[in-house]
């Protein structure tokens, strides 16, 4: 029996879904590396917004169209080269839930990006060409929610990754939502609205600095009021989005480009001041000191328009 296929609006992915079922299948682009997705998502035991267990990914999302929440698990079907996605609710999936989950996963895992130009650049790159198989099909795992992406970037300013995860977990457990499905506990990142009653002192009690607390609360107000919207930033284009973000207190070039890269999905995003990027280049080039901005710009010239992928791939070389 043929399985009904649905095209996803604005996407190259297709969804195979029987109405009344609790699962669906999501098609994948030819270049896709599930093991690398698992590796990235499993990089910290302090992560609370998703779980990775025995090759499966577990996550809870909000479905605005159906005014529901959907916990799901997904795993890679090697034979079909697709993702099998299953609702963890006891009731059949609504069509809106299926479409919302498929759209979320497609954006989260960067499934709509054509990696052919990126592969060509990797093959000719003096550093990344040493890791062709490791990087093949590697996609930029994103942060689809603008408020979450901005908060994560602000929290991560000038601290190590472990402490950044600790702060994110505290913020999520205090102001986000927690739900139990089966034996697993799922968390949702705080909404901007849920942060409006918080004070700087409240956030300081979580060990978030005064300045970062002020930045986060200001972002919550801007997004709640509609002053700052993801759709508007994307529609404005790379330069205008960058300038809008940098004009906000607490958001410098690094934070702006990190959000452009992981939330707004601009392949030209270039967080040139990133410490991890500097460490990767220093290591791969055998330098005694970190490279200068001019040296980095020269190295990245061939990657014009795809700088975000070069950065993401260089981050990965730190653990290869």
UniProtKB/TrEMBL annotation:
Domain of life of the native organism: Bacteria
GO CC terms in record: cytoplasm; protein-DNA complex
Record organism: Paenibacillus urinalis
Cross-referenced CDD domains: ENDO3c
Lineage of the species this protein comes from: Bacteria, Bacillati, Bacillota, Bacilli, Bacillales
Keyword match Membrane: no
Family the UniProt entry places it in: Belongs to the alkylbase DNA glycosidase AlkA family.
Any one Gene Ontology BP term: base-excision repair, AP site formation
Protein name in the entry: DNA-3-methyladenine glycosylase II
One Pfam family it belongs to: HhH-GPD
EC number(s) per entry: 3.2.2.21
Single GO term (MF): alkylated DNA binding
